[in-house]
Design a protein that fits this description.
By secondary structure, the protein is mainly α. The protein has a domain of 64 residues. The protein has 4 helices and no strands.
Length: 107
């Protein structure tokens, strides 16, 4: 009698979708940050950051350049009061991740 062996098909490993891969890279970068303090921003600085956010938002509206979009979102996050800051930081993260995703797609 012939020796019959059944081969089990190899599991193919799926490559993570680009967004999942980016988020995994972001998580790794977060681990590299280490500890830092979220200090309160005084009103004088907050107003300056707000003016910068407005100026960069106008520039983004005119030029459509992503650097203006990132700077606008960053200054917006810095000009927010604590109860608004989480949303502004998520918007900044979204701009950064979307930019990284476009760079990856352009390779």
């Amino acid at each position: 009698m012939a020796d019959e062996t059944t081969e089990t098909p190899k599991k193919t490993t799926r490559k993570a979708d680009p967004l999942t891969q980016l988020l995994n890279e972001v998580k790794a970068e977060i681990k590299e940050l280490g500890e830092f303090e979220l200090a309160e921003i005084n009103d004088s600085l907050r107003r300056g950051h707000d003016r910068r956010a407005t100026a960069w938002a106008k520039e983004y509206g005119k030029s459509g350049r992503y650097d203006a979009c990132i700077l606008s979102a960053a200054f917006e996050a810095l000009s927010c009061y604590p109860h608004e800051r989480r949303h502004a930081l998520l918007q900044l993260a979204a701009v950064a991740v979307a930019s990284a995703e476009k760079l990856e797609a352009g390779k």
